[in-house]
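pasting for the record
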Amino acid sequence: MDDQQPLLLPGQPFPPLPKGEFVLGDGAYGREGYVVSDRIGHGTETKLGTQTIVKVVGTQPPLALPKAGSTVLGRVTRVNPRQATVSILVVDGLPCGGAQATRVGASNNKAAGEGIDGSDFQGIIRAQDVRSTEKDAVVLAECFRPGDIVRATVISLGDARSYYLSTAQNELGVVHATTRGPSQYGWTAAKHVLQPMSWREMADPVTGHVEPRKCAKPDWLA
């Protein structure tokens, strides 16, 4: 049976251990007669016959699940005339997704919440949820493009596959986008980060190229 100790930091010794024979496991090592942790985690003592295995179980960052009312950050993956599909990355300031998704993200340059196909937590922004006025005149291709990072709120759990998201408030919409230009392989993203010019336009500060977006109100703008 495991006996869990308080959180330990790297280089911090275990609390005094009962007398007996100890075996040092993962995350633990001996120094000057003490058992010391080599990582952030909880110390555990596992009885195995007459021996006690001492190890440190590393902690993982808290992972959040989207729910109605949550504010999320996500990457736009697809856009069609009816809706934009978003891979949700952050929920209320915390990374979302399972441990497997996080490991996949680390190995494939994807964020927590993005699995192999980037759709562990998928959101949909419908045309009627992009803005609060002139909903019938919304053209999604002029609001979002694949690769954009958007801030949105979860308005409902949607269907079995996706959450319904909204960008209808001033502080919601595209928060990060890059310019796109022609190449021999089609249109590709450039290195220049677009700057918001209004709630519906962003501009390349280097070339002056202007692209339509549904922009989020910048945090620094009162």
